[in-house]
TrEMBL record:
Protein family membership: Belongs to the SIMIBI class G3E GTPase family. ZNG1 subfamily.
Domain CobW C-terminal: residue ranges: 229-314
Organism: Falsibacillus pallidus
Record key words, sorted: Chaperone, Hydrolase, Nucleotide-binding
Catalyzed reactions per annotation: GTP + H2O = GDP + phosphate + H(+)
Pfam families membership: cobW (PF02492), CobW_C (PF07683)
Protein name: G3E family GTPase
Length: 320
């Protein structure tokens, strides 16, 4: 389902969310500039969320005046400043109208954890996660043996979870080397589209083409979906039974990494904030009503099945 219904019964168009990942200095801000221009050329308003490790913003100058922007400084979305992220996103949504949200992560961010943070159940029904675009510095890739194992692991994770990889700074290595690097990147992520770029410039129409493919994938394809890391949001319409919910959790595949959301149970008049990662469910009772959104993040999600099983839970049906 693409759109949510607002309180007046109107269809709400979801905001497309893109995450820009890539190691320090690989070309994310350069890509951001191109992306903003592309959105504007197509009559859309982008909003930007920039995360920087330092306490002072350096890259916000790259964003033209008039573009909605929020900054998260002095920490990485994926580890230390998740609550601040929620507040910033809420403020962006409250103050501005926009069609696209582009999030530039710090070069040190683990992409899975960033997606996890963005897909807050508070407003996940307004967002459509469109995927991770990773920039790879061709020269750094060439010299990657100089990197620590931890950094190299991060670089690989950023590539593995991308929907689109930009092999950037191709002017700094030879044509033959670029060919080898594309081959190596595809070895890490055969589903991603890899484009060779100078100054992160490419035809961004590619994005809508790949996105359409993802959206149309209602049938779980036997060869897997193009898009590796995905999120799915279910909005409960009423209370469910705790026991059935726990049985449903046990039935989930290992490729679901994370669940979080507000769930109302039949035994309580207020919802619980529910958190689940690494097989560990946690429940925290809220003292007021919250949007009953459940966010599910994983690889190659079988969204039809998730939807059907969650609806069955709500209808209190057996054998889900
Ligand atoms: N030679 C060359 N330089 C590039 C290219 N793309 C970007 N640069 C330069 O590389 C530097 C870093 O680019 P950014 O876009 O700021 O990289 P970033 O990933 O946002 O960097 P951080 O914010 O530090 O993580 C800048 O000086 C860019 O002008 C390219 O294709 N070739």
């Amino acid at each position: 389902m693409k759109n949510s219904i607002d309180e007046n019964g109107e269809i709400m168009k979801k905001i497309k969310v893109y995450v820009l990942a890539g190691f320090l200095g690989s070309g994310k801000t350069t890509l951001l500039r191109n992306f903003i221009q592309y959105e504007k050329n197509h009559g859309r308003t982008p909003a930007i969320l920039m995360n920087e490790l330092g306490s002072v913003s350096i890259d916000t100058g790259a964003v033209e005046e008039g573009t909605p922007i929020a900054e998260l400084l002095d920490g990485c979305i994926c580890c230390t400043i998740q609550e601040k992220l929620e507040a910033q996103l809420q403020e962006l949504l409250y103050r501005y109208q926009f069609d696209t949200l582009i999030i530039e992560t710090t070069g040190a961010a683990h992409p899975v954890e960033v997606v996890d943070s963005i897909m807050s159940p508070l407003f996940a029904h307004q967002f459509d996660f469109e995927g991770i675009i990773t920039t790879v510095d061709a020269l750094r890739w060439k010299n990657r043996s100089e990197l620590s194992p931890q950094v190299l692991h991060l670089l690989r994770e950023q590539i593995r979870n991308a929907r689109l990889v930009l092999l950037n700074k191709i002017d700094l290595v030879s044509e033959m080397e670029n060919g080898t690097f594309v081959y190596e990147i595809q070895g890490l992520n055969s589903d991603a589209t890899v484009v060779l770029t100078k100054h992160s410039a490419f035809d961004l129409d590619i994005l809508s083409k790949v996105a359409k493919k993802e959206i149309m994938t209602h049938d779980p394809s036997p060869i897997g979906e193009k898009f590796k890391l995905q999120s799915f949001v279910h909005t409960f319409t009423g209370p469910i039974q705790l026991e059935s919910f726990e049985n449903w959790l046990k039935s989930l595949p290992d490729t679901i990494y994370r669940l979080k959301g507000y769930v109302l149970f039949t035994h309580s008049d207020k919802p619980y904030l529910f958190q689940y990662s690494y097989g560990m469910p946690l429940y925290f009772k809220e003292d007021m009503m919250m949007p009953l959104n459940l966010v599910i993040i994983g690889e190659s999600l079988d969204k039809n099945h998730l939807q059907a099983s969650l609806t069955a839970l709500e209808n209190n049906e057996e054998n889900i």
